[in-house]
Amino acid sequence: MARRWACTPASPPLPLAWAPPKQAQSAELERLHALFARVGAEPYPDPDVSAADWLRGHGASTRMLAVADACYANDFGCSLDQLGLREMITESRRWDSGACSLLAQAHGLLYSWCCKCLSFGVSIAESQVAASAASTDNES
């Protein structure tokens, strides 16, 4: 059963900042964002390399790697060591939604639907899923 979910463009998150802000740290963060902004212009590596290795090859600091792991690799559902450069390049080249994120409308319904499909043969009360999704909706 195919379903199409409507998506709403969301403003990009506020720029990430270190606390307390320091000039050197801000420069690192700007450099990290610049690396990710130009990843689509990179040639496909053969063989593939991890995003972590690519960043290290561009002189990324330990702090930059930690931020990249939390902010970028997390979007791919993996760690920076598991994220391949080829995957990053492909996403960058094919991204067609501008400088915004896309949020599923009524994501509580999406969670409920996914849980129904994934819970076949598993004892999960749908009311627990709906209640959990509703509390998530109220937090945003």
Tell me what the structure shows.
52% of the residues lie in helices and 6% in strands. The chain has 140 residues and is mainly alpha-helical. It has two domains: 22-94, no CATH class; 103-139, no CATH class. A two-stranded antiparallel sheet has the order 1-2. The longest helix has 15 residues, at 23-37.
Strand content is: 5-15%
Mean pLDDT: 74
Q: What is the strand arrangement across the widest sheet? A: 1-2
Uncertain residue ranges: 12-18
Mind summarizing the main beta sheet? Answer: 2 strands, antiparallel
Instruction: For the record, give the distance between the C-alpha atoms at the N and C termini, rounded to a whole number.
Output: 29 Å
- The rough form would be described as elongated
Q: How many helix segments?
A: 6
Number of domains: 2
Elements, N to C (H/E): EHHHHEHH
Count of strand segments: 2
SS class: mainly alpha
Instruction: Compute the CA-based radius of gyration.
Output: 19 Å
- Assign a percent range to the helix content: 40-55%
